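Exercise 7.
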Amino acid sequence: MASHAPAPGFTDIDLQHWTLRRLPPWARPYGRLARWDRPIGTWLLLFPCWWSLALGTGDLGTGRHWAALVGWMALFALGALAMRGAGCTWNDIVDRKVDAQVERTRNRPLPAGEIKLQQALGWLVIQAAVGAAILFKLNKFAGGIALLSLLLVAIYPTMKRFTSWPQVVLGLAFNWGALVGYATVTETLSWATVALYAGGIAWTMVYDTIYAMQDQRDDAIVGIRSTARRFQNAPRRWLTLFAVLAIVLWTACGILAHLKLPYFAVLLAIAGHFVWQIATLKPDDQPDCLAKFKSNAVIGWLLLLAIVASPLVATIRTALF
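Solution. The predicted structure, written as tokens, is:
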């Protein structure tokens, strides 16, 4: 695969996003540090939480628990917003010198000089405090599992300097909610949850490799490693491998959780989305890579629908008949 120069002035900043149009000027750098202008990352962090909450609620299977699910989903949404923001802020603090050398990231608040390091650290603490407050709403088992993820969050920004597989660490961190959500509802874990988590890691290998394709040229110059660079001679082969692995693991999740036919039918739609992503991907086209990366929100919604469908229908049937 050829390594083409990035599009002149290419950036993934959405200048029309409400956080850049409505926030007062002094607050905009903080919103950008937290990536409020790019909500797809929050969704990708949130979906594994919602999947496992729904899986655990389906195992409990009562109307009262389904009503509580909505409240848990809202709380985890706030937690995902805070912790994704904290993680991105930490990533920008660690990578501020590298970001200054990469076309797509040189206009971020720290390398652009819009905000000082001390201010970024203060913003990190505030967001982490919101996440910590939410931990107190969880049972001790779930809270303990959630705390274990902090090590992954802390080391992820450094991994790209030492390994060509930093996306594995990101996958471990971004899908940790697949364990926390189920533990929150059931105060335990299950093999179905482990399969759900592992499938999420494989999914992350697909979408974050595509995301990293945007920076291959600059990453090679500054010595940053990624699976995009590692797979550059056969990207579709590797992406297909991880997409198939995700489908296999999510199928195992459905079998272990005794989910019904609707779950597996929706998995076919997810497989179709993977096929579309990989077949039409343009690895040297930055806007196309960004668009394909963002399209993974569709997979998140589809898998949530798949998990909810069978137990929700069963609960309604039980209530009516």
